[in-house]
Each structure stands twice: as structure tokens, then as C-alpha cells.
Write a structure and sequence with these properties.
Helix content: 25-40%
CATH topology: TIM Barrel
CATH architecture: Alpha-Beta Barrel
Number of helices: 12
CATH superfamily: Aldolase class I
Radius of gyration: 19 Å
Strand order of the largest sheet: 6-5-4-3-2-1-7-8-9
Order of helices and strands: HEHEHEHEHEHHEHHEEEHHH
Number of domains: 1
Shape: globular
Largest sheet: 9 strands, mixed
Distance between the termini: 34 Å
């Protein structure tokens, strides 16, 4: 079902109640890559057992979560990721959303088909550049064969996500041209430094964001981002991390987000009352460029301003889900 009337009505309630809507859930801190700008992995870290992950999903569902991002480390290193998605989609009669964030290196035809069968709604594949760079191996040259399999087999929406910085800026038009014709959406993560603070600056980035947007259809904090790229962090906003947005780390504790690790509460101890205690302006808000947290915060914190974009996204997701239900595979761009 995913985005249906029940999902929309429950999402509307999240504007007023004390329950969370969105959760990022780490399935392992281990990763097969070592990107220098990333501090969200620990090579050799253990895989969290499936039964423990199911227990965490049960608790998040009880709290009211509707949207789940599974991430790492590298999410596809978890051998039971498809079963975890299946368990998640068994909640609320499937009237929820499940996303996997991956670097794509471990995708296979078998794993993609397993995720289809499990009911996955979205996959975000992180691809930064045309060729390997000193900072990242997540390049189109390495991952293109996997993307072609994904284009052919996936019955879920796929978004190609790129970290925007000096290295990716100069070749991004060529990057998009190579993938033209593939059934993918595209988006940017704006490079951040310690604490989530924006790590890039300059007018040169404004042109590409004007051309392509932050990610297709939903530019919730576009004006804020333009100002931050000019060095202006004065515009106020309210972060809903730890309240409407939850980040569940590998140990099973909830943080405000991936970058704010000082405030942690065991997931199993959370109640709506305790969540409400995090409904305040955070000291790290100025300069924050964490798009996932800001999307939830602006959507639920400024519902009238973002209603049009939210409805557009919901309609688009429903249409893509209907199209994917057909027996015909997605077309693959000519080689």
C-alpha cells in the first residue's frame, strides 16, 4: 500500500501529536568502503541479529513511525535485510514506507528480486563522481554495471544520491547525461563537516542547485540552503530530531541525528512523553545541512508552506508504485 489515504491521514496527525514519523535505523556499522568524508562506519563491526532488528521495528511501530530508512555502514552487508524489510512492511497493513540507503557495490539480481518480494518502496544509491577520487570510491565507473541491473530488475523507486562538493560539481552534468534514460530520480546530499554543519560555500554551487534542485520535487529548505552557501546562517528553523525524527544507532539507542551523539536514549525506554522533551530548538541548528532531518522538520514544522511539495511527492510515489506493479521490466538505457 505504502502512500495511501491511511498513510496521509496518519501523517497529518503527526503535525499535532507527540509521536515520531520518521526513523533512520542502522543495521550495521560495518562498511565495504572507506570514504574519507564519512564518519558513520566502523570496519569489521558486527551485524545486528535479525531478531533484535525486528524487536526495534516493533517498538518504532508502536511509537508511531511511518517512514523507515535502513542504513549503515553499508546496509546490504546485512544478510537478512530483505526479511527485515518484509517485517517492516507487515506493520500497518503496509501503509508505511521502507527505504534502503546503499553504496550499491553489493547489489545483485538475486538481492534486488528479494527486496522486490519484500515490498521495498525506495532505494537510495550513493554515487558521488564519474571516477574514483581521493575521498570516495563511490563512482559511476565502478557502479554502472550494478545500476543497469537495478534499472532492469527493481520494482521500487531508485534515487541516485550525490554528495555535493568541489570534486563532484565540475562533472555533474556529464554524470547526469550518462544516466539519462534510466528510470531513476536524482538528488544531492550537501557535504557537511563535524556536527552536520555545511562544509561547502560559494556561488558556484547555487547554479547547479537551481538547475537540478536538492532532490526532485521536494526542495523543503531551498532558501535556507542558498543562504548557507553564502555563509549566512541567521534564518531560524526548529530541528525535530529526537522527537519526530529518530536516529537509531547500532547499539539500539536513539540520537537526535547521525552527527549529534551526545544525547542518547535507549529505544526501548522511549515514550511519547519522553520524545516530547526533545521538542526544542537545538544548539546545532545554525548551519545544519543534514537533508533528512531538515526534510522532516520543515514538513511537520511548517506544514502549510510544504503542503504542495508533500502532496506532489505522495502522488508521485503512488504512481510509481502502480507502474512498478506491472509485469514489464523497467527499460534499460541503450549502451
Amino acid at each position: 500500500m505504502a502512500v495511501d489515504l491511511r498513510f496521509i491521514l496518519t501523517g497529518a496527525k503527526r503535525v499535532f501529536d507527540s509521536r515520531p514519523m520518521y526513523a533512520q535505523v542502522v543495521v550495521t556499522d560495518d562498511c565495504n568502503l572507506t570514504c574519507s568524508y564519512c564518519d558513520e562506519y566502523t570496519p569489521g563491526a558486527p551485524i545486528i541479529p535479525l531478531e533484535e532488528m525486528k524487536r526495534r521495528i516493533d517498538k518504532l511501530d508502536e511509537l508511531g513511525v511511518q517512514v523507515y530508512d535502513f542504513l549503515g555502514g553499508e546496509t546490504m552487508m546485512h544478510p537478512d535485510i530483505a526479511e527485515l524489510v518484509r517485517h517492516t512492511k507487515s506493520k500497518r497493513g503496509g501503509s508505511n514506507l521502507a527505504t534502503i540507503i546503499t553504496n550499491g557495490f553489493l547489489l545483485t539480481e538475486k538481492s534486488i528480486r528479494a527486496l522486490n518480494a519484500a515490498g521495498l518502496d525506495f532505494m537510495q544509491v550513493s554515487v558521488d563522481s564519474l571516477h574514483p577520487t581521493p575521498h570516495s570510491d563511490k563512482c559511476l565507473k565502478s557502479i554502472l554495471p550494478r545500476l543497469k541491473v537495478l534499472a532492469k530488475e527493481a520494482r521500487f523507486t531508485v534515487e541516485i544520491q550525490t554528495v555535493l562538493n568541489d570534486e563532484t560539481l565540475s562533472t555533474y552534468d556529464e554524470f547526469r547525461d550518462i544516466l539519462k534514460g534510466m528510470p531513476f530520480a536524482f538528488g544531492f546530499s550537501v557535504m557537511h563537516g563535524k556536527g552536520g554543519r555545511i562544509a561547502i560555500k560559494g556561488e558556484k554551487f547555487l547554479g547547479i542547485l537551481k538547475k537540478y534542485g536538492v532532490f526532485e520535487g521536494v526542495n523543503f529548505y531551498g532558501e535556507h540552503l542558498k543562504e548557507m552557501l553564502r555563509g549566512d546562517f541567521s534564518r531560524p528553523w526548529k530541528c525535530l530530531g529526537g522527537f519526530k525524527f529518530l536516529y537509531v544507532n547500532a547499539a539500539g539507542a536513539v540520537q537526535w541525528c547521525s552527527q549529534q551523539r551526545a544525547c542518547m536514549t535507549p529505544l526501548m525506554e522511549l515514550t511519547p512523553k519522553r520524545l516530547k522533551e526533545n521538542d526544542f530548538n537545538k544548539p546545532c541548528e545554525a548551519g545544519c545541512s543534514l537533508g533528512c532531518v531538515r526534510m522532516v522538520s520543515h514538513t511537520l514544522g511548517e506544514p502549510l508552506k510544504t503542503m504542495g511539495a508533500s502532496l506532489k511527492l505522495a502522488v508521485g510515489m503512488s504512481q510509481k508504485k502502480t507502474n512498478a506493479a506491472s509485469s514489464e521490466p523497467f527499460p534499460v538505457a541503450s549502451r
